Amino acid sequence: MRRSTLLAGLAAVAGTPIAASAAPGRRADLIVSAATIRTGDPSWPFAQAFAVRDGRIALVGSRGDMRALRGPGTQSLDLGNAVVWPGLIDAHLHFLAVGLALHEVDLAHVASYEEVVRRTVAFANGSRDPWIVGDGWDQNLWPDKQFPNHAALSAAIPDRPVVLHRVDGHALLANAKAMALAGVTASTAEPSGGRILRDASGAPTGVFVDNAMGLIGRAIPPPSHAQLVRASEAALKECHRWGLTAVGDPGVDQNGLDAYEELLREGRYTLRNHAMLAGSDDELVARWLQRGPQTLAHGGRLSVRAIKLYVDGALGSRGAALLAPYSDDPGNTGLLRLTQAQIQSVCERALPAGFQVCTHAIGDRGNRVVLDAYEAALRRSRAVHDHRWRIEHAQVLAPDDIPRFARLGVTASMQTTHQVSDMPWAQARLGPQRVLGAYAWRSLLDSGVPIANGTDAPVEAVNSLRTFHAAIARQNEANQPPGGWYPRQRMTRDEAFKSMTSWAARACFLDGAAGTLEPGKYADFVVLDRDPMRIAPEEIMSTRVLATFSGGERVYAAPIAAAPPALRARGRRNGTCCGAHA
After folding, report:
1. Which of 18, 38, 128, 335 has its CA 20 to 30 A from that of 535?
2. What are the residues facing 30 on neighbouring strands?
3. Nearest-CA neighbor of 370 among 354, 398, 391?
4. 77 has which bridge partners?
C-alpha cells in the first residue's frame, strides 16, 4: 500500500472515533499517536491515535479526536513515523524454560557432537552447579546426522552429572554419572511411550526419548523457588524485547505458578500468561478441576484454565506417531505417549469444569488419536461449551483429518518457524507424498480453522519477526529456499498478523482483553521501526522492535540510538515513556 493511500484511509475514518463507555469528564493518562497504527479491529483497521486510561484503551481515532480526553496530567507519546501494532501474542511458549535456558549450556545450532562436548566442558568449568544442564543440540545438523553416544561426554566430564536436552525437548543425552545417579543400567526397561537408545551390547547410549526421559529427570534436583523467580524475570525481558505482551504457557506446574504469583504480588510480572497445567501431574490437575478456572487474575496477568497433554513425540527424534513408518527409519512408526482413552478421560472431566484441553500432536497418527478423543468426548457431552480445545503443533496431518478441526471447533496451535527449522530433513522423514500434509497452514485456513501462531520457545527463538517471516515466506533468515518451501501453504500477511494477535488471543481466551487495539481492552502494544505488512519479505528480519507496552506501561525500550525522540524521554516510575505533557 502506498503511503498516500494509507494516509487517505486514515483521514477517511477519522470522523467517527470509537470510544469505551466511561464516566464523562475523565481524562486520559496517555495519548499515543503515530504515522501507522494497525488496530487489528476489522471495523477500524487504521488509526492516527488512541487514548489510554487506567491501563486500558479509552478511545481510538484521529489526533483531533483525542482533544476531548486531554487534560493537565495527560502524557503524550508522538511516535512520528514509527509503526504501532497490537501487542504480540505467542500462543505456545514455554515461559520458565525460556528463562532457565538462558542460564544453561546453549547448544543451539552446534554443528558437531565434538563441539557439544567442548561447549559443555567450558560451561562446567565456570559453573558451581552440581548438575550441568544444557539445551538445543540437534543431530540433524551434524555430519553423520546420528544420535550421539555418551562416551565422549562421560570421558570429558566423569565426576559431575550432565544432562543435555535435544532442541525439541523430546530427547536428552545423559553422561555416565547422570545415569548412575538415576539408577539406569543395561537392564532398565523402557517405559510405555518412551525409548532408551542402546548400543550393540544392549547398554544405554545415553539418549532417552520421550517418556524415557523421566528415568533421568527424576534424579535431577528441581529448580528452587528463587531460581524459578529468576528464570521468570529473564523470560519477561526476552519476551518483551520481541514485542510479546501475552503468551500461552504449556505444561506449568504448581512451583511455576508460585513463582509467577510472587512476581504478580510485587507488581513485577508484566506479561499476560494463559497457563496450561501439566497434564502429567494428576494431583495438580485434580486440584484445579475441583477448584475451577482462574480467569484474568491480577489485572489480567494470569489465567489458569487449560490442561496440556502429550500424545506423541517429535519428528526430529523420530518419536512423532505416524500412520506409516518413517521413510528414513522403516521399522519405526514413532511413540504414543497417551492412548485415546486417556485423553478422552481428561477431556470429559475438563469440559464440565470449564477447562480447555491443549494436546501436543505432531505425527499424523498422533493428530488422529487426539481428534478421535476430542470428538468422542464432545459427543458424550449434552451441554454446549465454548471449549476452544487446541492441538499443539498439528504438524503432520492426513488429508481426511484436516476438515475435522473446523467441524469440532478445534484450534490449530502451530509454530511457523518449526517449518523453517525442519525443512532440511522433513522430507527425508516423511517422503514426498506425506510431506504435503506437513506444516499445512493454507490447507487448514482454507478449511475454516484459525491458526494460533507461536514459537515453542526455547525450541525456537522467541523472535516474533522470524515467526511472521516464516509464515508469509516459508523461508529461513537468509530468505532460502528461493520462492519458499512448498509455498502453496503460505499465509497471507493479514493471516500471519491475525495468527500473532487476534487469533492467538482467542486461543488463549484473551480475545475480550487483548489481541486488538479497541476501547475497553488493555493498552498492550508494540512499536516497530517499519511495517512488516508493507515491506519486502527479505526486509522483515531487519525490522526492529523499538518499544513494548503492557497496560499502557513501557516494559521494553530499544537502545536509545534506535528509538524515536519520544521514546528517549524519561518515563514514569514503572517505565512508561512519554513525550511532553499536554
Report:
1. 18
2. 52, 75
3. 391
4. 32
Q: CA-based angle 328:329:332, to the nearest 5?
A: 140
Q: Which amino acid is at 322?
A: L
- Kindly list the domain boundaries of the chain, sorted by start residue: 3-87+518-568, 96-217, 302-507
Beta-carbon contacts of 571 under 8 Å, excluding residues fewer than 6 positions away, are 554, 577, 578
Neighbour-count burial of 221, counting CB atoms closer than 10 A to its CB (0-12 exposed, 13-18 middle, 19+ buried)? exposed
Q: Is the CB of residue 60 less than 8 Å from the CB of residue 50?
A: yes
Distance CA 319, CA 207 (A): 13
Average pLDDT, the chain: 93
Residue 18 has pLDDT above 90, yes or no: no
The Cα 365–Cα 537 span in angstroms is 34
Residue 382 has a pLDDT of 75
Q: Which fold has domain 302-507?
A: TIM Barrel (3.20.20)
- Cell reading at 58: 479509552
Sign, CA torsion 453/458/459/465: positive
Which three three-digit cell numbers place residue 528? Answer: 516497530
Instruction: Judge if the upstream peptide bond of residue 458 is cis by omega within 30 degrees of 0.
Output: yes
- The 10 Å Cβ neighbour count of residue 24 is 5
Q: Are 367 and 361 in contact (CB under 8 A)?
A: yes
Q: Which residues fall within 8 angstroms of residue 348, CB to CB, at 6 or more apart? A: 377, 380, 381
pLDDT at 10 over 90: no
What number is the average pLDDT over the span 384-388? Answer: 85
Q: To the nearest 5 percent, what fractions of the chain are helix, strand and coil?
A: 35, 25, 40
pLDDT of residue 560: 66
Burial classification of residue 163, based on how many CB atoms lie within 10 Å of its CB (0-12 exposed, 13-18 middle, 19 or more buried): buried
Integer Cα distance of 4 and 11 in angstroms: 11
Task: Please report the sign of the dihedral spanned by the C-alpha atoms of residue 416, residue 421, residue 427, residue 432.
Answer: positive
Which residues 6+ apart lie within 8 Å of 429 measured at CB? Answer: 315, 318, 326, 327, 328
Distance CA 328, CA 149 (A): 20
Provide the residue count of the chain: 582
In this structure, CATH architecture of domain 96-217 = Roll (3.10)
Read off the pLDDT of residues 272-311 as tens digits, 9 standing for 90 and up.
999 999 999 999 999 999 999 999 999 999 999 999 999 9
Cα–Cα distance, 80 to 286 (Å, whole number): 52
| pLDDT value, residue 60 | 98
Asked if residue 355 lies in contact with residue 307, where contact means CB atoms within 8 angstroms, the answer is: yes
Q: Does domain 3-87+518-568 have CATH number 1.10.390.10?
A: no
Q: What is the 3-state secondary structure (H, E, C) of 436-485?
A: HHECCHHHHHHCCCCEEECCCCCCCCCCHHHHHHHHHHCCCCCCCCCCCC
CA 148 distance to own-chain centroid: 28
Q: Which of 198, 188, 261, 256 is nearest to 227 (CA)?
A: 256
- In 140-211 the beta strands, taken as DSSP E runs, fall at 162-166, 171-174, 194-198, 204-210
